[in-house]
Amino acid sequence: MSAVNGEDTAPATGERTGGGPVVDVTASRDAEVGGMRVRRALPQRARRTVGAWCFADHFGPTPADHSTRAGIGPHPHIGLHTVTWLVEGELVHRDSLGSEQPVRPGQVNLMTAGHGVSHAEEPVPGHRGALHGIQLWVAQPESTRHGAAAFEHYADLPVVELSGGAATVLVGTLAGVDSPSRGDTAMVGAELRTGTGSTAVPLDPAFEHALVVLDGAVEVGGATPSGHPVLPGRLCYLGLGRDHLELSGASTSLLLGGVPFESPVVMWWNFVGRSREEMTTAADDWNIAAPRFGTTVSSLTRIPAPTPPWRSGRRT
User: Fold this and answer.
1) Superfamily of domain 6-10+20-258
2) Where are the domains of the chain?
3) Which of 28, 52, 78, 83 has the most CB within a 10 Å radius?
4) Element containing residue 167 per DSSP (H, E)
5) What is this structure's pTM?
């Protein structure tokens, strides 16, 4: 699930990455990817990144008898890691490195694009169950973004027990517990499962954090008159400087955080870089089948790169 357009990456107005803790709840944007409705929490016009996290598409849940299955044909990436996390259902990842890997709830697929890679996300043949999850991108820093592509899958991830809940660490570090997944910057990505009572989540105050609720509802700040309700379809930005987060309510959510990213990023279509020129070159290379992206074998149709809006003269 992917593709960023001008609605997501128009010039930011007033984005905050400094200062102390805040609770800033903003609506995700509805989009359609691979025939499925998604709620795009990142990027937003007012917020491009949370740490190195730069993209978050929450998809599903689809009904168990949904007649069309989610899937997206071969397409390219540069300068990012993709992180696929499912709450329900199953998908198959195929890429130009030769990987073919199903991903199921509780498991993580992480692909590193570097200078270039292509992949497809396919439905499982014959699977008619519901599908629910989130597709995430992590921007690679200058030190690794021109490097080689890679893929990794982890079926067993560390769990941090919390009072009133638990956290599965997908990427990075939470409460001194490290995920085996690759992380090129100091960061955290963790699924939080909380009960009806109050749950305290330890945080690194050097990180900025945000919360994306996947299921249920949660009060940020606890069940108090000053609490902030957060539902699916919202991004709750929490700012810098927190050493813990108090939550109340039964929910499944994603905690995203990290040190503020080293530089502004340029995002367009399936690419993360630092300039429009990089985007244009990558699109041209994909459309002429340049070797940098390899070949992904898939039953789904290869997706051509669109014309960048700055090349066509359209406003961005």
Assistant:
1) Jelly Rolls (2.60.120.10)
2) 6-10+20-258
3) 52
4) strand 165-174
5) 0.92
